[in-house]
Amino acid sequence: MVKKSILLYLQTILKMRYLFIYILVFFSLFEAKAQINELGVFLGGVNYIGDVGPTDYISPNEPAIGLVYKWNRSPRHAWRFSYQYGKLSSKDIDSDVPGRELRGYSFKNHVHDFSAGLEFNFFDFDLHESGFVMTPYIFGGVSYFIYNEIYIPVDESEIDYRDSAFAIPMVVGFKARLYDSLILGLEVGARYTFTDNLDGSNPKNDNFENLRFGNLNSNDWYVFTGFTITYTFGQNPCFCAE
Question: Tell me, what CATH number does 147's domain have?
């Protein structure tokens, strides 16, 4: 079991290496003078949706933090890259579902989320203009996250090994420029994951096959809710037809 955990951990490191190489190559294709950048932080909370505990979609119960980078291509869209970290936890006793309350399971997990994709503004968010500018926005792309493969032997979760998977990010938000170089945003970002074991309900390890429970045909979700604060820098781009 120890050898298997070490092997999976090394595989995770290799996957992350390829992801960062891809991002570096992507940025090298563009000239810095033709862009304006945003760099900042995410502060908020995170909650999980699955086979343990409440089924509320937006109900952050653990703190979450992160980093955000945006490369603005026009007043309507920007390439966005982010890293977010949060603890996932849930308890059946907090659920309104009678069967879950009686079962009494609980779990704890952690996610390191790396996302990349396109952010689209519903209104022009022209960084050439001075003064107050605001717009709602959406973001979509791909997420890659690291988490713990867990199982529930009695009523609380135990860690088996570290694993990773992909997810589909779906983010909606609202942002406004407070000062010339400072932008404040409020957003809710759901992740539909390609795993059903953030909560220990469907461990991959066949040694724990008898511990599987819940809907084994439905994958888990986690949702980040919070604020982004970004600082703009770099030469303003020319938002005009070339």
Answer: 2.40.160.20
